[in-house]
């Protein structure tokens, strides 16, 4: 804040765009910014830090954006990512798009170059029409054109990011706006706190009755919980409905822990059977997209009727006819459903629940046998069995998970007991979210984080180990190293390594050591168990490189069927 003398001789306090952006964010409870500084936003980060907003500086903007998105999912408030003009902005876009796809509230604030120069394509420093470039990747994109609109722009970005279906919002602030000055008290009057940013949305009573009619007629009802249900923080209402009806439930990967995976009504261990046989399905914050086989046969019964709870009416009927739409926020809808079943109970037919229980028991036994094997070199299941044992002893740990086999197998082996404790590749199956999500989980919760990473997946954001070490975050990165994308044993067709091959002899733990973290290299489940126990207890940064059999793993993990078939060899 600067004091200047007005012509009248009276002292007048001035403020500028930098201070006003920070003031507008603070007025809306933004207490953390994830970013990477450079022209023109370096001073914005400095002003934020000086005014008590925590600033976390990354090594690449995509990770900063991923951290902001994960913060949004965990807190229900928009995570904020700060990027520079041009290339920095572009590096943030994959995270903005990923946040939008996953329905995570996030705001990417980016500085941009001089508008007059950019629009006439005069060859300005890092020139790019950022606003229009961002539009297809965001829920909304706004530009602030003058200092007086900073408060309005921030309020608009916050409201848009969290209301209705949450998503990523782009907020463009040209360099010249950051540098503009105005009278401080007039400026203070231009910022405001958004009232009730994500208002409740109640379902219509007839929609509730219609839904219950469908569920009452079902012989084989099933509840599918998605990450929208986890995000909604309606844990109590969801638990009450599941237990009042006795319906089996299936958690999508980021909804694991909403009810404990050990819950007797969890049908996770009988997933294929539950999906194939269900005749009425209540989708709660889950989309019938590729992750659910689009709700069609052969995975699903063609008889299945769908009841869908979603805040976005446009989601309904996107794949299958929705027999009973329930548009509203999950907390309100589930409260209405609970009230209705309290008045007129619904129960799950015993024949169905015992059919699922039998299948679960068989599959659980198969899993126990797989985990008990101890081959040399180690394979995915054996490493994951060790991780599972340690996490059972450390219930509050947050789990981040990415990779192909590392993702597909960990999702089944690592059970979750607490809600919103698992962050993974999500709707896009995107690689590179690992370190950004891990930073956010540690920063937003203060709890230890274990990132279970394929060696290839880790490479996409691996340099953020330096970030994790710089801030001394309680993050342990477990790298399931089979030396390749999918696996590391493919024979080359020429003199270079095969396209899928990385380096099974790599010592990733040395990357942590280079930046002052702790490194472990393990070759057996027993070594892994003791390294992970020690690493979590240390509450510091570490990498555990797990040497796996390069022949372990299958191409494309569980998604091999998505590869187009080659017509010729
Ligand atoms: P999953 O991948 O776990 O199946 P999705 O991301 O596909 O989950 O689906 C999440 C759904 O939840 C989205 O369609 C989104 O509109 C919806 N959603 C998000 N928040 C809420 C909320 N508070 N109330 C109702 N629906 C919500």
In this structure, how is the largest beta sheet organized? 6 strands, parallel
Helix content: 25-40%
Number of strands: 20
What is the radius of gyration? 25 Å
Order of adjacent strands in the largest pleated sheet: 4-3-5-6-8-7
What oligomeric arrangement do these chains adopt? Answer: single chain
Q: Looking at the structure, what is the overall shape?
A: globular
How much of the sequence lies in strands comes to 15-25%
User: In terms of structural class, how would the helical and strand content be classed?
Assistant: alpha/beta
Distance between the termini: 69 Å
**Helical region count?**
22
Bound molecules: adenosine-5'-diphosphate
Uncertain residue ranges: none
Report mean pLDDT, rounded to a whole number: 96
Domain Thiamine pyrophosphate enzyme TPP-binding: 410-546
Keywords: Lyase, Magnesium, Metal-binding, Thiamine pyrophosphate
Family: Belongs to the TPP enzyme family.
GO molecular function, one term: magnesium ion binding
């Amino acid at each position: 804040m600067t004091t200047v003398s007005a012509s009248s001789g009276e002292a007048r306090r001035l403020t500028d765009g930098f201070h006003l952006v920070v003031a507008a964010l603070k007025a809306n409870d933004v207490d953390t910014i994830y970013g990477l500084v450079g022209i023109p936003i370096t001073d914005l980060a400095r002003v934020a830090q000086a005014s008590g907003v925590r600033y976390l500086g990354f090594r690449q903007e995509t990770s900063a954006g991923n951290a902001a998105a994960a913060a949004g999912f965990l807190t229900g408030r928009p995570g904020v990512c700060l990027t520079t003009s041009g290339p920095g902005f572009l590096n943030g876009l994959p995270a903005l798009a990923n946040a939008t796809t996953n329905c995570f509230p996030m705001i990417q604030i980016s500085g941009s170059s001089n508008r007059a120069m950019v629009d006439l394509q005069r060859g300005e420093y890092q020139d790019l029409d950022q606003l229009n470039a961002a539009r297809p990747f965001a829920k909304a994109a706004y530009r602030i054109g003058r200092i007086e609109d900073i408060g309005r722009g921030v309020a608009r970005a916050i409201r848009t990011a969290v209301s209705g279906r949450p998503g990523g919002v782009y907020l463009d602030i040209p360099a010249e706006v950051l540098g503009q000055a105005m009278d401080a008290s007039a400026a203070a009057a231009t910022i405001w706190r958004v009232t009730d940013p994500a208002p409740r949305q109640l379902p219509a009573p007839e929609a509730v009755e219609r839904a219950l009619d469908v569920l009452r007629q079902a012989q084989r009802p099933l509840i599918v919980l998605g990450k929208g249900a986890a995000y909604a923080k309606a844990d109590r209402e969801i638990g009450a409905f599941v237990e009042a009806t006795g319906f089996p439930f299936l958690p999508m990967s980021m909804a694991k822990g909403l009810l404990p995976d050990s819950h007797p009504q969890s049908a996770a261990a009988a997933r294929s059977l539950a999906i194939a046989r269900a005749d009425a399905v209540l989708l709660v914050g889950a989309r019938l997209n590729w992750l659910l086989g689009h709700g069609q046969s052969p995975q699903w019964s063609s008889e299945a009727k769908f009841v869908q709870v979603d805040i976005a009416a446009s989601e309904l009927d996107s794949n299958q006819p929705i027999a009973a739409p329930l548009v509203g926020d999950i907390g309100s809808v589930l409260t209405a459903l609970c009230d209705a079943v309290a008045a007129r109970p619904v129960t799950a037919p015993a024949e169905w629940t015992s059919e699922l229980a039998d299948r679960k028991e068989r599959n659980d036994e198969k899993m126990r046998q797989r985990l008990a094997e101890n081959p040399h070199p180690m394979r995915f299941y054996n490493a994951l069995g060790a991780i599972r044992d340690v996490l059972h002893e450390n219930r509050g740990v947050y789990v981040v998970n990415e990779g192909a086999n590392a993702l597909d197998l960990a999702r089944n082996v690592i059970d979750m007991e607490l809600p919103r404790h698992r962050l993974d590749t999500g709707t896009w199956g995107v690689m590179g979210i690992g370190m950004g999500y891990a930073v956010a989980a540690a920063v937003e919760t203060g709890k230890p984080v274990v990132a279970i990473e394929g060696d290839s997946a880790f490479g996409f954001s691996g340099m953020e180990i330096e970030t994790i070490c710089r801030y001394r975050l309680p993050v342990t990165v477990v790298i399931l190293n089979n030396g390749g994308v999918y696996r590391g044993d493919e024979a080359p067709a020429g003199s270079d390594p095969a396209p899928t091959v990385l380096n099974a002899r790599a010592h990733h733990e040395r990357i942590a050591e280079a930046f002052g973290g702790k490194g472990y290299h393990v070759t057996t489940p027993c070594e892994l168990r003791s390294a992970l126990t020690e690493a979590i207890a240390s509450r510091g940064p570490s990498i555990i490189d797990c040497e796996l059999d390069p022949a372990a793993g299958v191409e494309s993990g569980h998604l091999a069927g998505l590869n187009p078939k080659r017509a010729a060899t």
